[in-house]
């Protein structure tokens, strides 16, 4: 079995793709090649994981100037031709699109070449690339039930988003402790960093005994660390948390963004969360992801436009004042998890090739 995995750009695209690739290799002895772009994080993560990566040139369409958008559209046929050439050379049995820059051209090339296609969509509302090819793919693996309607002609299954096994093995927390984990992704969140820094004096008044672990990202580390020192709040402040599963295990409540991978980790770990969606995310997909958990009584949502010291302190204090509700949110979050996501997506790919 040969599988071509197309797409990338961010960790939210690449990390699940690598999990799918490992399952395909382990369970189906698949030969694998990734297709991405030179500016995506795949250039670092894919070779480090031991997989071959081919690059094509694809411009941006979202959140860019009209000039850049027009240039991208003009270059798109060349990107499709480049992907078509790679497909002819590798001769894959299935092409898996994981979203991101290279996904659209790669999947279109596969569809035109009549190669079976599987789209992976981790967000409630599909990204631009998956919306373009949604009606033409053979199958789709999605995170949320409501996403299935975007793939009317495909064999669609709710598989969830692959996350590391360690997140599923995190035990329930004892009641009464007040450990808060704050992070905004690997780059950090300027909004969360700023408001948390300003809120510390009020937070320790309203939540006595609170312990905080805060991942700041590179740029705000010094200022945030100084804010904790001045406020006298017990905290572990770091630019990046290497062992995120352990940070989740030690947390009673998580304050974070709501990208697809983060939401999947929250559900796998069974953690109550306060989501502050990144408002500039394409198609506002972070808000939609957060709303899905709010609807299940597993999380709270604070729009960034409403994020203030008062709102943050009230939300955190209210959560810690009601341990029973925190436990209920944790159970509801765990109920939305998908422990076999990577395996199920690999099985779907194998089914398309009649290889399983």
Written description of the protein model:
This protein is an alpha/beta fold and 356 residues long. It is built from 14 helices and 13 strands. The strands form two sheets. Strands 3-2-1-4-5-6-7 form a seven-stranded parallel beta sheet, with helices on both faces. Strands 10-9-8-11-12-13 form a six-stranded parallel beta sheet, with helices on both faces.
How many strands? 13
- Uncertain segments of ≥5 residues (pLDDT<50)? none
Q: How many DSSP helices? A: 14
Radius of gyration: 21 Å
Give the H and E element order. EHEHEHEHEHEEHEHEHEHEHEHEHHH
Secondary-structure-based class equals: alpha/beta
Sheet with most strands: 7 strands, parallel
Overall mean confidence score, pLDDT: 91
Strand order of the largest sheet: 3-2-1-4-5-6-7
Strand content: 15-25%
| Secondary structure: helix percent | 40-55%
For the termini, the CA-CA separation is 9 Å
Shape: elongated
Please outline the helices and strands:
Blueprint: E1 2-8, H1 11-28, E2 31-36, H2 42-48, E3 52-55, H3 66-90, E4 94-100, H4 103-112, E5 117-121, H5 128-133, E6 139-142, E7 155-158, H6 165-168, E8 179-183, H7 190-206, E9 211-215, H8 221-231, E10 235-238, H9 244-249, E11 253-256, H10 260-269, E12 273-275, H11 285-295, E13 299-301, H12 309-320, H13 323-334, H14 341-353
Parallel strand pairs: 1-2, 1-4, 2-3, 4-5, 5-6, 6-7, 8-9, 8-11, 9-10, 11-12, 12-13
């Amino acid at each position: 079995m040969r599988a071509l995995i197309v797409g990338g750009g961010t960790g939210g695209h690449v990390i699940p793709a690598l999990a799918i690739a490992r399952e395909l290799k382990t369970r189906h002895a698949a030969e694998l090649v990734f297709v991405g772009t030179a500016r995506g994080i795949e250039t670092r993560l894919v070779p480090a994981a031991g997989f071959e990566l081919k690059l094509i040139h694809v411009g941006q369409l979202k959140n860019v100037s009209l000039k850049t958008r027009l240039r991208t559209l003009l270059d798109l046929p060349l990107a499709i031709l480049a992907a078509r050439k790679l497909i002819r050379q590798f001769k894959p049995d299935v092409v898996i699109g994981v979203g991101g820059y290279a996904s659209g051209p790669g999947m279109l090339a596969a569809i035109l070449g009549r190669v079976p296609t599987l789209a992976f969509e981790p967000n409630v509302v599909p990204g631009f690339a998956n919306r373009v090819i949604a009606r033409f793919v053979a199958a789709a693996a999605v995170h949320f039930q409501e996403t299935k309607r975007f793939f009317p002609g495909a064999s669609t299954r709710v598989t969830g988003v692959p996350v590391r096994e360690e997140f599923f093995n995190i035990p329930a927390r004892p009641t009464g402790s007040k450990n808060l984990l704050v992070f905004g992704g690997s780059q950090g969140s300027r909004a969360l960093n700023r408001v948390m820094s300003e809120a510390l004096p009020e937070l320790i008044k309203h939540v006595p005994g609170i312990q905080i672990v805060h991942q700041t990202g590179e740029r705000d580390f010094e200022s945030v660390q100084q804010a904790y020192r001045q406020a006298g709040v017990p905290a572990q402040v770091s630019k990046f948390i290497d062992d995120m599963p352990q940070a989740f295990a030690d947390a009673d409540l998580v304050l974070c963004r709501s990208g697809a991978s983060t939401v999947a980790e929250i559900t796998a770990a069974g953690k109550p969360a306060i989501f502050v969606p990144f408002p500039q995310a394409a198609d506002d997909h972070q808000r939609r992801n957060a709303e899905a958990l709010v609807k299940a009584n597993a999380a709270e949502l604070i729009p960034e436009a409403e994020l203030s010291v008062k709102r943050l302190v009230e939300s955190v204090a209210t959560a810690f004042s009601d341990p029973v509700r925190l436990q209920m949110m944790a159970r509801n979050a765990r109920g939305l998890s998908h422990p076999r996501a990577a395996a199920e997506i690999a099985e779907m790919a194998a089914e398309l090739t009649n290889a399983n």
